[in-house]
């Protein structure tokens, strides 16, 4: 679960026009690195030729990677006052003319809010024999990173960086196409559910059209799967997936939330993943605890009404033809 209103940062989470930022509580699925003394690390490499830190190698999405951190910014790219974050591909796929199309999401831990700010670009990154490193040169202003009120550096001078990477099939450059339907978007759909207590199992919203697709929300008031009898679960389903054939699949990055009807913090989580003909639904199993849902003082259920919402950030089609 995550709430974008849990901490008041000295910057807007969505302040960069070409960067998608959000907030969540779940740690990165693929790699997390902790730096014990950020100040010492930053000062020791300032002005040095080796002005960055490379993590240990790790395996994710069938490839070997290294997380690269520039605490003063990647000066070779003209960035000096930002944290720059990159993901280097270590393992080279076999064959000639290969490419790896990867969607990369970076993480910085907020010690005050016990959550992560996530940072990703508006489109997939392409790796090939001439480009083995990709990332975001302006991930976060250094002054915002070191500001104590933002919570990115602990009281003992520790900090955490992480990454998730989702990879389309590694394909020869002559046989693949990756297109962005809407690289950066703020489209959303709100579903007001009246007589919420009458739902005994799962309930689907009416179909709605966003990002050139037809979708539905599916809610489980008593939870689903690992969230059964513990949490409210919410899923985003792709209704029309008939065109996702012959190697086509859709990557979608969204935020789902339960609206707080008292005007306080909403409860939200990110849903990021692939949609295919075989898998046309992704969801947040632990979106909101049942104790908070049924506590009238919390404001998530009022007069037997619950309001949920999905906000689209990124929709990307991979078409292997």
Describe this protein's structure.
The structure is a single chain. The protein starts with 19 loop residues before the first strand and ends with a strand. The N terminus is likely disordered. Strands 1, 2, 7, 8, 9, 11 and 12 form a seven-stranded antiparallel β-sheet that branches. With 321 residues, it is mostly beta strands. 5% of the residues lie in helices and 47% in strands. Strand 7 and strand 8 form a beta hairpin. The protein is built from three helices and 22 strands.
Biggest β-sheet strands, sense, barrel: 7 strands, antiparallel
The total strand number stands at 22
Structural class: mainly beta
Global Rg: 21 Å
Helix content: under 10%
Mean pLDDT: 84
Topology pattern, helix = H, strand = E: EEHEEEEEEEEHEEEEEEEEEEEHE
Question: Proportion of β residues?
Answer: over 45%
Separation of termini?
A: 38 Å
Instruction: Count the DSSP helices.
Output: 3
Shape: globular
pLDDT < 50 runs, ≥5 residues: 1-7, 170-184
